[in-house]
Design a protein that fits this description.
Length: about 250
């Protein structure tokens, strides 16, 4: 590449990055303003930190070892940051763009899948409607004694739970779908306080049902969540999470 072309390439990429950052900041500011107008915005941050805590794959591997799970399904693999660290006898990963073993959407996979799994990890599109669909489909193909885990249930700020990445950690509104699962009589659910919140779902009677009846769960407000999250999510410690599948 000629020096003048290399210089143009560097300047062009620098301009694109700056423009992308400006667009992201404008979009984020617009969402914050909309949240204020809709009485949804809160400047509070959840008083949590993930530093020096176990990761999602630490929890998954401990559950696999402790409960002799063999058939692992991961929905949303991306860079395989989790998938490559899982020590299961059989591993299947679904992602429409990269990672895993199956290049398709989760909807396409569940529509064609004929098997069942004893441990499923959901980490696909971080938006309420798709998370809800993925969780309900996962429950359908879960073995009776199996466990479902779902990532990103605990956004620490309003910005982190927007419907698009706004810089920094992006959890989306996964939390809304998980809160809805907490209201089901035949689903027992809790969130482990590690790694951006790892939700856990078992197919059994709900031991601690959440009595929450909004007109639509997608309209839940982060302003309320930031104060109510321990109850809404039924938060548990890592040690409690290791025992969660065995609760009767």
């Amino acid at each position: 590449m000629a020096p003048e072309n290399a210089e143009f390439y560097i300047e062009h990429n620098h301009f694109k990055k700056r423009l992308g950052k400006i667009k992201r900041n404008v979009r984020t500011s617009s969402c914050v303003l909309r949240g204020i107008l809709n009485n949804d915005y809160s400047s509070k941050r959840l008083p949590l930190s993930w530093d020096d805590r176990p990761t999602r794959f630490d929890l998954i591997n401990r559950l696999i070892a402790n409960f002799h799970y063999e058939n692992y399904l991961e929905v949303g693999c991306s860079t395989d940051a989790c998938f490559q660290n899982i020590a299961a006898k059989t591993k299947l990963g679904v992602d429409p763009f990269s990672g895993g073993t199956h290049r398709m959407t989760s909807d396409e996979f569940f529509a064609s899948n004929k098997g069942t799994f004893d441990i499923i990890f959901v980490d696909g599109l971080h938006q309420y409607a798709q998370v809800k669909t993925d969780l309900l489909n996962a429950v359908r193909v879960l073995d009776d004694d199996g466990i479902i885990l779902v990532h990103d249930c605990l956004p620490l700020s309003f910005r982190a739970q927007l419907l698009f990445p706004a810089g920094g950690a992006w959890n989306g509104d996964v939390w809304k779908a998980f809160v809805e699962m907490r209201t089901h009589d035949d689903i027992d659910a809790a969130v482990c306080l590690i790694d951006h919140g790892v939700g856990m779902i078992a197919k059994r009677k709900n031991r601690k049902p959440l009595s929450l009846h909004p007109d639509a769960f997608i309209d839940l407000r982060f302003k309320d969540f930031v104060d109510q999250y321990p109850e809404w999510l039924n938060t548990i410690t890592f040690d409690e999470a290791l025992r969660f599948p065995a609760i009767v």
